[in-house]
Amino acid sequence: MRPLPPEAVLLLAAPLAALTLGWALFHRLWPRKTHIPILVSCAVVTGVAWSLAWRVLAGGGMEGRLFSWVAFGRVSVDFGLRVDGLSASVLAMVSLVGTLIHVYAAGYMEEDPGFSRFFLYFHLFFFFMIGLLLSSSYLQLYVFWEGVGLASFLLIGFWWHKESARAAAWKAFLVNRVGDAGFLVALLLMLGWTGTTRFEDVFARLPYASEGAVVLVAALLFWGACAKSAQFPLYVWLPDAMEGPTPVSALMHAATMVTAGVFLMARSWPLLERAPAVASAMAGVGAFTAAFAAFLAASRRDLKRILAYSTVSHLGLMIMSLGLGNLVGAVLHLIAHGFFKAA
Asked: Fewer CB within 10 Å: N-end or C-end of the chain?
């Protein structure tokens, strides 16, 4: 891994600066202009993301430590950024599609009385997803993973005066907590087993771990991914999440939240290679979810629900692809789906 260039810090610094400026200044003085610093942030993130993707393509991955985050006993966790082929390719798609959806939202939400609040929530979601993709450890990824869940709750229930929106927000929040419990237990097992959650260190110690421990951790991570990426039986929250404003549906279904589970399992590829039973289960669950959701989509009349079940079906195909050992195919489908589903 090569060291990160200094501009990589802008991927997190630009959204944080835009959110701070938007909340402290624009939200109070010029609420109808809150989107201006946020759109500037999106442009900066997209430019840096595509620049880093080009560098990764030309010369390999990059990783850098920003500061020491947690240290107790033999456990030490650094906050860092990792940009390799997987994260650079997904980040390039998320940043570009996310920026286009931000621009679309500026017009779509123009007359909404909660315009300023909406853009702060919307960009918070974007920030957490960028952080998730850049994480260098499972613990760091988990923190941003939970941040994405919080922001999705705020956005799905944005029109809180509608009972259906409130119910959908709570449904998404609670179903995802069921999946996140698996991720949390896997994280604790990793800490006890290796004393670290950094991807490189965890994968390097796999040969010294028992087969049962590897299978258990992989299975728990997959359970977490099932909730975030709406796999059977934890898919039930995603169709109801269409209760949020249309830009929210576009961002969640195309470029961000629902792809987080697929990204987690792709990032955990070395674990899957040592846990073939979990990979086989992924292939089966993904195939069933893809067929089942396609049938549900064909039997619905509401356009947004048809799109929601379509998303569930495509996510099933991605999970199935990973389970069958086709990492490149799954990530390619993830990126292609991000573009066409947003449209």
From this structure: C
